[in-house]
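lol forgot to send this yesterday, sorry. struct tokens for the thing we talked abt
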């Protein structure tokens, strides 16, 4: 591979610059492609396709060869997974289609290429070049609205990607589209915005020169010649920088500038200066698409020198380059008439014709304005009708929304009523339960079974002791303490409680404690005595035991008991 690379480096300068035989260059490049691999092969494809690109402008067979080479080039780039090379070949292939005026292929292929390259930062330049070619094709087809819409979309994507080159390209498309529609103010605005972005960006001097061409020409069309001259001078500076950066003279860009100067000085009636740039165009070669303009300018120069035969000759040549454009035909007819009148000393006739033409244009303008007013009236009428329909739709929409809101409110009211009824029923049930608990707290503790007389006597003694001494309020009360107080053995006391109540001594004591808690919660509600204090005051050691015993005895928690007790008392 290194051998091939050295071979390519040594051979290419001779192929590209020194050899006069172009076919030998192409054959040599094809040999490199056939015998090399990897990046050398891709670079050679790029050089070879660039040669064919230039030659294919006027040769359909070479265009076919170029498109075949692009297919090979693309396949090789895909094989080597070189996304940058894929972007380059796809960009150039679309440009070839556009040059060949195969617009349908551009419209079909460009979206696929854009989708393929989307999201790869390394090919942002190629991505937006394809975007630009795509939109320029719409301009070629006269579909200006689609071009404008696409340019705004392109600008948005470039702005989101923070890619200034893409923004500058999009603004240029907008300028070109409005220029084709003879909306010169917008054309100028977007051209200036495009230049402001592109002129300081690396590698964008060629693109900047294109935009300067458009800006200068639109200023000339609007007869703002002094401004056009200033911008032409800036255009010239860009061309010098472009030559310096590319290490070669950029002939196309200079030709565009000389056309600008030629038109500009004809507009300023400085025909000697206009002649200087016309001669430069003679020396460098004239762009085929601008030949009509060139011959028209030449004709005007000769006319003002009173060289009418030459002026008429140039006007005839301009006629051959109009390509069926009615505007160019009208301008050329007026130019020929002006020359013929001058040749026959018929200035008065030409002046009268100019007045008649001006009157004709005025009549057409009035007719156009009348038609425009008619269309505007129709538009306003339809707009008013649409506004009425829109308002009616808004009213219907509001009615529907109101109905939905009413239904929603009714449903919410029903749900709220059901919830309230459920709450009230539950509240009533809790009140009944609270009353039962309070009543139960006032009743003495009685045996729940029928033990023998001895156990019953012990149980009654124990009850009297508990009630009179309130020993249940002592947190550390136990069987031993009670046995000492009563003089009865602890086992007899435990047996009597079990036989009479069916529960242990602790549960029996807790029963008294809960009754005391109910009394405290009922009597001191207005003082908002904390539950923690009630726990201590009723002889419980901790809050958890108190809550468990209260819930087991009453069926509700202390807080719920207090809540419903509060509601009941408030209602009373």
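and heres what i got for the seq, position by position
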């Amino acid at each position: 591979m290194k051998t091939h690379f050295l071979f390519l480096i040594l051979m290419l300068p001779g192929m590209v610059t020194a050899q006069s035989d172009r076919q030998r260059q192409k054959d040599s490049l094809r040999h490199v492609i056939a015998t090399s691999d990897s990046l050398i092969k891709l670079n050679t494809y790029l050089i070879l396709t660039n040669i064919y690109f230039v030659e294919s402008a006027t040769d359909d067979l070479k265009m076919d060869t170029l498109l075949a080479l692009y297919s090979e080039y693309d396949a090789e780039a895909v094989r080597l997974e070189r996304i940058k090379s894929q972007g380059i070949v796809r960009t150039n292939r679309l440009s070839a289609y556009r040059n060949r005026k195969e617009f349908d292929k551009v419209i079909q292929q460009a979206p696929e290429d854009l989708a393929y390259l989307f999201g790869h930062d390394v090919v942002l330049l190629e991505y937006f070049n394809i975007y630009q070619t795509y939109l320029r094709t719409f301009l070629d087809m006269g579909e200006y609205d689609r071009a404008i819409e696409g340019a705004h979309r392109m600008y948005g994507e470039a702005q989101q990607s923070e890619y200034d080159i893409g923004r500058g390209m999009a603004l240029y498309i907008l300028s070109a589209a409005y220029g084709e529609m003879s909306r010169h103010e917008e054309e100028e605005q977007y051209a200036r915005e495009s230049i402001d972005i592109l002129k300081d960006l690396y590698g964008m001097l060629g693109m900047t020169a294109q935009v300067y061409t458009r800006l200068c020409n639109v200023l000339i069309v609007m007869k703002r010649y002094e401004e056009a001259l200033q911008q032409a001078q800036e255009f010239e500076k860009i061309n010098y920088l472009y030559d310096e950066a590319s290490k070669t003279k950029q002939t196309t860009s200079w030709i565009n500038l000389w056309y600008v100067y030629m038109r500009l000085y004809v507009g300023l009636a400085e025909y000697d200066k206009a002649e200087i740039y016309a001669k430069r165009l003679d020396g460098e070669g004239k762009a085929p698409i601008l030949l009509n303009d060139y011959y028209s300018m030449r004709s005007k120069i000769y006319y003002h020198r009173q060289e009418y035969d030459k002026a008429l000759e140039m006007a005839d040549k301009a006629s051959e380059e109009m390509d069926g454009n009615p505007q160019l035909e009208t301008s050329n007819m007026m130019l020929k008439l002006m020359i013929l009148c001058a040749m026959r000393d018929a200035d008065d006739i030409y002046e009268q014709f100019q007045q008649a033409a001006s009157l004709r244009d005025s009549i057409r303008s009035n007719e156009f304005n009348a038609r425009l007013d008619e269309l505007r009236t129709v538009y306003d009428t339809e707009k008013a009708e649409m506004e009425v329909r829109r308002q009616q739709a808004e009213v219907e929409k509001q009615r529907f929304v109101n109905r939905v809101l009413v239904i929603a409110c009714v449903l919410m009211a029903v749900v709220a009523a059901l919830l309230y009824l459920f709450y009230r029923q539950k509240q009533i049930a809790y009140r009944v339960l609270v009353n039962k608990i309070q009543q139960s707290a006032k009743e003495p503790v009685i045996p729940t079974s029928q033990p023998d007389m001895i156990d019953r006597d012990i149980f009654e003694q124990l009850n009297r002791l508990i009630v009179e001494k309130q020993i249940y309020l002592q947190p550390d009360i136990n069987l031993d303490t009670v046995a000492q107080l009563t003089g009865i053995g602890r086992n007899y006391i435990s047996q009597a409680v079990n036989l009479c109540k069916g529960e242990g001594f602790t549960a029996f004591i807790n029963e008294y404690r809960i009754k005391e808690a109910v009394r405290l919660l009922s009597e001191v509600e207005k003082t908002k005595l904390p539950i923690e204090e009630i726990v201590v005051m009723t002889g419980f050691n901790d809050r958890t035991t108190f809550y468990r015993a209260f819930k087991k005895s009453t069926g509700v928690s202390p807080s719920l008991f207090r809540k419903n007790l509060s509601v009941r008392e408030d209602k009373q």
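The mean pLDDT is 79. anyway ping me if u want another try
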